């Protein structure tokens, strides 16, 4: 076909179809945004990238998120909404948001910033289409006042860090490792952050049995709670408010292997058997120790002793002692009837030393 005829053919095709020829060398404009969510699948931010943008640290792409246990109570209603809040729905904790909607942590829909951007910036048409809207690069980014950075593991909402805004994308982000940017004022403290469990130092915390009745055998981790020691009596009165028939037995007393520590302002119970400071390879790796912070003057009754690695003293003190606590340098005399050893599970443990056979 001659060039002139080819040109006439293309012009005729455009006139008939109303469609310009497609330039295969130019990619179509991006019209979608990646939704970034927290561990409970609540919408945190959106980023440009035709569905493949990089989510801020501490978040994940919504399509990969599965609601974790503990994010909500069975039967609890959660709000699902579209990015621009024109569509909302309520679903139970066991349900999933309808297609195109996302969970909202605060229960109130806040429009995504893309809802006010022009179409060529990756968002919907401006709300007032009669006015020339600024481009994504000309529009000033909102300040960080509406967001806050919090540690992912801060269940009590006690700690914040500065929020930063990326001027090229207007995305908010956190500079501290392990922190996530959320809507200001939406952090909800976990139930264990009540005054009963609050602490400032390790010495504030103690382990006590969870129910009203003292257990007849040494309690396991699932049967105890860590409390502020000033609140133990009040806690015991609350769990024993109703008459309870306790079993007739001699209470076994506390399990020395269970210790309490102050973790980010909350008393937490730990089983030393699961801690690295009791891992061993040989009997010589292990030693006896009193469970309190200071070894000098501690109770050396065999029933109260723990066993740990010989090189783990500093790690153990970090769990149970206050930073400024000083101990006397004396070493208690441990009973000759018991010894520390490395058990078959490669954990430091305690056993009774067999009595020597009688002399002939």
Spans where pLDDT lies below 50 across 5 or more residues: 1-31, 117-138
What is the gyration radius calculated from CA atoms?
Answer: 31 Å
Number of DSSP helical runs? 3
Strand order of the largest sheet: 2-1-3
Report mean pLDDT, rounded to a whole number: 77
Overall, the morphology is: elongated
**What fraction strand?**
15-25%
Largest sheet: 3 strands, antiparallel
Task: Describe it.
The chain is mainly beta and 360 residues long. Residues 1-31 and 117-138 have low confidence and may be disordered. It is built from 3 helices and 18 strands. A hairpin with a 6-residue loop joins strand 4 and strand 5 (88-92). It has a 3-stranded antiparallel beta sheet, with no helix packed on it. The chain has helices at residues 3-17, 232-239, 313-320; strands spanning 33-37, 43-48, 60-61, 77-81, 88-92, 102-104, 147-151, 163-165, 172-174, 179-183, 205-209, 224-228, 258-263, 266-271, 286-289, 306-309, 338-342, 348-352. The termini are far apart.
Summary, kept brief:
The chain contains three helices and 18 strands.
Tags for this entry?
single chain, elongated, 3 helices, mainly beta, 360 residues
What's the arrangement of secondary structure elements?
Elements: H1 3-17, E1 33-37, E2 43-48, E3 60-61, E4 77-81, E5 88-92, E6 102-104, E7 147-151, E8 163-165, E9 172-174, E10 179-183, E11 205-209, E12 224-228, H2 232-239, E13 258-263, E14 266-271, E15 286-289, E16 306-309, H3 313-320, E17 338-342, E18 348-352
């Amino acid at each position: 076909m001659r060039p002139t005829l080819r040109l006439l053919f293309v012009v005729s095709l455009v006139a008939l179809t109303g469609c310009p020829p497609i330039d295969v060398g130019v990619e179509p404009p991006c019209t979608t945004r990646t939704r970034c969510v927290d561990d409970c699948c609540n919408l945190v931010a959106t980023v440009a990238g035709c569905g493949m943008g990089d989510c801020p640290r501490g978040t994940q792409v919504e399509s990969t998120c599965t609601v974790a246990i503990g994010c909500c109570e069975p039967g609890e209603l959660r709000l699902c909404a579209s990015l621009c809040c024109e569509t909302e729905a309520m679903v139970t904790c066991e349900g999933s948001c309808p297609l195109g909607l996302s969970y909202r942590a605060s229960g109130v829909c806040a429009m995504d910033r893309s809802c006010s951007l022009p179409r060529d910036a990756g968002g919907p048409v401006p709300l007032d289409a009669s006015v020339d809207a600024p481009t994504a690069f000309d529009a000033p980014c909102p300040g960080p006042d509406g967001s806050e950075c919090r540690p992912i593991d801060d269940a009590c909402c006690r700690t914040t860090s500065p929020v930063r805004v990326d001027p090229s994308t207007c995305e908010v982000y956190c500079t501290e490792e392990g922190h996530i940017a959320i809507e200001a004022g939406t952090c909800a403290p976990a139930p264990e952050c009540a005054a009963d469990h609050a602490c400032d130092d390790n010495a504030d915390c103690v382990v006590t049995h969870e129910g009203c009745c003292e257990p007849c055998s040494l309690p396991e981790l699932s049967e105890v709670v860590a409390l502020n020691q000033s609140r133990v009596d009040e806690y015991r009165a609350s769990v024993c408010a109703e008459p309870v028939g306790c079993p007739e037995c001699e209470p076994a007393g506390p399990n020395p292997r269970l210790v309490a520590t102050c973790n980010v302002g909350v008393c937490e119970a730990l089983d030393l058997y699961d801690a690295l400071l009791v891992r061993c390879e040989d009997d010589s790796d292990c030693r006896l120790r009193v469970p309190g912070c200071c070894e000098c003057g501690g109770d050396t009754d065999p029933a109260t002793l723990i066993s740990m690695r010989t090189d783990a003293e500093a790690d153990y003190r970090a769990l149970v002692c206050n930073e400024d606590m000083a101990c006397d340098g004396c070493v208690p005399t441990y009973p000759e009837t018991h010894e520390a050893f490395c058990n078959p599970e490669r954990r430091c443990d305690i056993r009774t030393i067999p009595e020597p056979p009688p002399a002939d």
